Give the backbone structure.
Amino acid sequence: MSHTATPAAAPPAVAPRPDDAVRWRILSVLLIAIFMSLIGVSIVNVALPSIQIALDASLSDMQWVLSGYALTFGVVLVAAGRAGDLFGRGGLFLIGVVVFTLSSAAAGLAPSADWLNAARLMQGVGSGLLSPQALGMIQHHFRGEERGRAFGRLGTAVGVSVAIGPPLAGFLIAVAGVDFGWRLTFLINLPIGLLTFLLGLRWFPRPLFRRADPQVRSGWRTLDPIGALLLGLAVLAVLYPFVESQASAWIWWLLPGGVLLAAGWVAWERAWARRGHSPMVDMDIFSTPSFANGTVIMTLYFLGMTSIWVLLALYVQKGDGRSAFESGLFGIPASLLSAYAAHWAGKRVVRLGRRVVIGGLILAIVGLVLCCVVIALHAAGHLSVWWLVPSLAFVGLAQGSIISPNQTLTLADVPLAYAGSSGAIMQTGQRIGTSVGIAVITAIVFSTLKFSSWAVATITGFAAIALVTLVALVFAFKDQRDRLRAQASEAPPMDSAL
């Protein structure tokens, strides 16, 4: 960090780490909460038709069931991450668990679509509160290879939650019926949330909350509320047109407004730091190559790859006439392989570095190409559509090799005092990438569908995803080159000669 702050505005001292057994218990609490929040995303996709029937909801209502969660999640992420850095990550994490759990209960008991969407907005807030604290606590409590293993377990939790979400939703709806089954997909979070809260209260280090600095007169000034407001409005302006894309064309004017707000936020943060205050996000972290490159890689990855599962569901159901339950089965092997790959990569990422991510991106491109070949041959009557399952296996291996290892490498050189807010910046890139990618790539598919078949349209969408992934691969190679150059410049002359 190049600038220096006055002592009164400096970030709080980092508390000592607990012993080994306690650290892994803390991680288990974090993983249960992340599992709960992610399964809440994957499970609702299958429940949407039942929700629409039970609540007599419109298509716009259904769009907001998905989009409202993503919107509030993205808006609160960075401010929540910085609040955790300053006032205690454990306490903010537990608040997030409570908000997510109570809003899940409200969603499960919703009498109308409006009630359900209000609850989903609050679910996004709860997830946005707890998610950056989880990343920050992993950063704080783990170092070196242990940190890679911890992020690997996080990736395993992600893979398992994505794998079991769709079939679990199908099972609950089949057992409990259309009217009540979809409610169980939300109410299932109640026992998980309660368990997480109780374990967190028991195992998290004390104090759960702390003052940012005893010399700082105003905690709100330390939190940088103007910076939080500017960034929140910028994220909202960028995301909203993509989650409400069927509204008036005038809504797209929010995009340049979002860019201007983001520029204003950067200017404010630099000015705030020059005055000697602790900024919401230290802009100097973007001069760290590993953080800058890793954030771009993650944004590009989510810009492309998250659309695969949307296109897969559309092609299997609309293009091949399969049921929603059958379409959910296609992704299970890939998700389980993702969980395995995340565990494998977590043990090796510190030693192998960005090469793990590079290998994952190559696997992703191979999987996309194979999917295109299978779809083309299926459309010609030469292959069963189920051959997509082994093709998607490459995508699953890629996901496990990219997401968690990239988090480890991206945050490796970030100061612990900014671990939560820096992790939240990376996650905000993911949210923006996901929303923009799904909107743009599905638009490409539906535009192609106007003059061609589902097979051609889906192949076109997969080709667009592969192109974005290729750009991410370029940045991964760039980061690898930057690391090698940095290591060479630090080596003694004799080593350089050798």
User: Anything to note?
Assistant: DSSP finds 19 helices and no strands in the chain.
